[in-house]
Write a structure and sequence with these properties.
Length: about 160
Amino acid sequence: MMKIMQSGKWSVLFVVTLVSFITNLDATIVITGLPPLMENLHLSIGTGMWTITSFYITSTVFLLPSGRWSDMLGTKHIFLWGFALFTLATALCGMSSSGEALIAARLLQGTGAAMAMAASTPILIRTFPPNELGVALGINNIAWVTGSLIGPVLGGALIG
């Protein structure tokens, strides 16, 4: 029988939900800011599009392996390693001075996001009892979708 963790469950939900929000926000934040970004870094349209696409490629490719790593090494470890990689890659994105560096950082960022996303649902399943699990998953999913809605708006505001 799976052990359900009761103490601190709302704190766990807050952290997992915050990471879900941030990873999806960062996935979409470059969309509206792409033209000024391309101009400032002197990027071609192809390189500019890769700054968006690179995140989605690695977050998709590494989602299933991250789920397997989560099963083998533990969801908490994969979640924390994924969020650490995502955070480091986000800092590298901010420091990028070329299109190639930005694309490489976005590839790492997508990998970290995949690791955190793959571990988030199992963490919530182990944390919440069945009668509260739907609420926890719903809150987490709302935050994830909200991140994708706010990302382009925030990207435009930051660039503007």
